[in-house]
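For this section, I looked closely at the sequence of one protein beside the tokens encoding its backbone, which the following lines show:
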Amino acid sequence: MPVPCVRVPTERGEETRQALAARDLLDRRYEITASEGSLYVPVTDRGAVPAGYEVVDRDVPARETQTTPADVLGVDPSYERLGDIVVLDEDDPERARQVADAIVASDLRATTVVNRASKVSGELRVREWDVLVGESTETVHREYGHEFGVDIAEVYFSPRLATERHRVVEQVNNDECALDMFAGVGPFAVPMAARGADVVACDLNPVAVAYLRENARRNGVDNRVTAIEGGVRELVTDYAGWADRLVMNLPHTAGEFLDTAVELAGAECVVHYYDIQHEDDPFGPGTRAIREAAEPGYEVAVETERVVRSYAPHEENVCLDVRLTAR
């Protein structure tokens, strides 16, 4: 029986699969198939597929039944995938052990299972992990057609932000000058370079910068990415007035660097400013802080106010897309 499928060139297959999965449109009852240079991705609702994708009817095989962790446990556990690492967030160590054992007993592909043992902390934004299965905390994560080597014990990385990162990257134009002020292993910097931007990416963590350089090479954009180890304030000497686009993904303390962002901004610059604020006024504090830092030298126009995710009870992780235009 024919089912609706998105048809894309095979080289866009993983990017498309992730985009559809992010919108909960993958029809997991059927296999993804390939034929004559095209990939056919089954979808649950053809009417909800975003514009720009081709939807066709095609006979595709039903998936064979697989054992899931929920089948083993009797309830559906919460976990995240990061490459071949499964990440748990269980407060009860016994419950974490049960979920880890269920993952091993299932058909879920994983070489390592970890449970969060601390919050993100310190200047380098890392956390501690309880390794429940396997040994290595290093993996290769695939996101919207790009690959990122990462060691979660040494650097900060959140797969939850994939859709948000893609939203920002889609705004990047060819030959832009883009500066990622807190770059990590490059999940903003690498795809921005792939869009044709010249990217400067900075981070205090030497391990993150080493992965950033490796990831730029891995994705074939090392000629467009300048990776710098150190504090972003040190960039002002060489890059004052350089940036057409600034990414400020340091939600708790990005406001402390707005003076530096203004110095780095070119005559017209889009700033992606990440913040964590109370749900009663999630965007006001960031907007006021940006205006205080940028005015009167720049006209400030808030183009997008976006709740990225819930961070904690009554607290939101938000992004402001702000255009600065020199007066």
